[in-house]
Design a protein that fits this description.
This protein is of the alpha+beta class and 423 residues long. Helix content is 37%, strand content 20%. It is elongated, with a radius of gyration of 28 Å. It starts with 16 loop residues before the first helix and ends in a 6-residue tail after the last helix.
Length: 423
């Protein structure tokens, strides 16, 4: 019986890879234009890092982490998100002495034990971006602008909605917590068992529940914007003013709290209506006390994570696997010997070509050329070698012409530069 992939993980097949490459390239281009530098982080960390960084009461820490003891008896965890790992690196490698804000990004797989469904896997991929060491509201707005520019670079901005909120500061939380408890306590019977448990641990987390039965109760809950301190309210007002100055459309959503305990002040999400229940494609916020909580200096921070699987789903099939511009078909070993060097030269100059190995009959090679979607076949046999020419056949029309072997690499590079050379 063949061995299959573990439930909740999946292979990214060659037909999908161009969409992933396009998403990753757009991320690097946009982030680096804003001055962010890439950092590559380990896939697992000490369990304590995530327990302290994400929050003991979160579903991630309580239910979803892949945690195990290594051979030395240390408890380690496959990273469920990137922010805690990135901040650990920020502290460990002394980034706090660099000019502020320190701008970093990372991409790669994360791991959570969740129920697999479309757009949600147990191994999933995120792009994570953080701006560290600066509290100015313009930084919040600029981070959000960069996120929307990323989606704009992929042609997706018009299909997404940006939602923003403030969840206040340390002075906001006690008053708002009391208001939430006063509201939810007499209605606890209308909440799911999970939310009833959250009331004791962190009632703000009830607002993040996605269970349909809880939504009518949550929609009428008190707004946190009515409990903001004067300082938190001013910060949010200035963030919105900066977004307005950049012409960024957004909706203020007072019940947007995000799912992690470390957020303060600005929070935001990017939503779609095209992926069913998995409607959030990116989100983030400010976490001004988290670096200090992890043993570092009292540096503030703000960042976001993008769910790359969901972005790839939104792209659909528009970026399919690239077809070769031509298949080079040698008819015998002598022709293969000549075409090997020509194929290498064309590839080194950026032309995508396939090379046969002289073992198939011509008809089979032409059928293979069609299946690969190549625009042209290049046929070389003993007669062509004697004339110093290759036969170039356009697959769509069947038209053929001779091309000197000495200039064949140039011809292939020129064909590759033409729009629609591959079909």
């Amino acid at each position: 019986m063949p061995i299959k992939a573990v439930r909740g993980v999946r292979d990214i097949l060659p037909a999908e890879s161009p969409r992933w490459q396009r998403v990753e390239a757009a991320g690097r281009s946009v982030f680096e234009a804003y001055g962010y530098r890439e950092i590559r982080l380990p896939l697992f960390e000490r369990t304590e890092l995530f327990a302290r960084g994400i929050g003991e009461a979160t579903d991630i820490v309580q239910k979803e982490m892949y945690t195990f003891e290594d051979r030395s008896g240390d408890s380690v965890t496959l990273r469920p998100e990137a922010t805690a790992s990135l901040l650990r690196a920020y502290i460990e490698h002394g980034f706090q002495v660099q000019p502020k804000p320190v701008r970093l990004y990372t991409m790669g797989p994360m791991f959570r034990y969740e129920r697999p469904q479309a757009g949600r896997y147990r191994q999933f991929h995120q792009a994570d971006v953080e701006a560290l060491g600066e509290t100015h509201p313009a930084v919040d707005a600029e981070v959000i602008a960069m996120l929307m520019d990323f989606f704009g670079a992929l042609g997706l901005a018009d299909r997404l909605e940006l939602h923003v909120n403030s969840i206040g500061d340390a002075g906001t939380r006690p008053a708002y917590r009391a208001r939430l408890l006063d509201y939810f306590a007499p209605r606890s019977g209308e909440l799911c068992p999970e939310c009833r448990g959250r009331l004791d641990r962190n009632p703000l987390r009830v607002l993040d529940c996605k269970t349909p039965g809880c939504q009518p109760v949550i929609e009428k809950a008190p707004s946190i914007l009515d409990s903001l301190t004067a300082e938190a309210a001013e910060h949010f007002e200035r963030v919105r003013a900066c977004l307005d100055a950049m012409g960024i459309a957004y909706t203020v959503t007072p019940r947007l709290v995000r799912g992690l305990d470390y957020y303060v002040r600005t929070t935001f999400e990017v939503l779609t209506t095209e992926l069913g229940a998995q409607n959030a494609v990116a989100g983030g916020g400010r976490y001004d006390g988290l670096i200090e909580q992890l043993g570092g200096p009292p540096d503030p921070g703000i960042g976001f994570a993008i769910g790359l699987e969901r972005v790839v789903l939104l792209l659909g099939d528009e970026a399919s696997a690239a077809a070769p511009v031509a298949v080079l078909i040698p008819l015998g070993d002598a022709a293969l010997s000549r075409l090997l060097g020509i194929a290498r030269e064309a590839r080194r100059r950026g032309a995508r070509v396939e090379l046969g190995y002289g073992t198939r009959k011509l008809q089979r090679e032409l059928e293979r050329t069609n299946r690969l979607g190549a625009g042209f076949a290049v046929i070389v046999g003993d007669d062509e070698l004697a004339r110093g020419q290759a036969l170039l056949r356009e697959m769509k029309s069947g038209a053929q012409r001779g091309v000197p072997l000495e200039g064949l690499a140039d011809e292939l590079v020129g064909l590759a530069a033409r729009p629609g050379a591959a079909r």
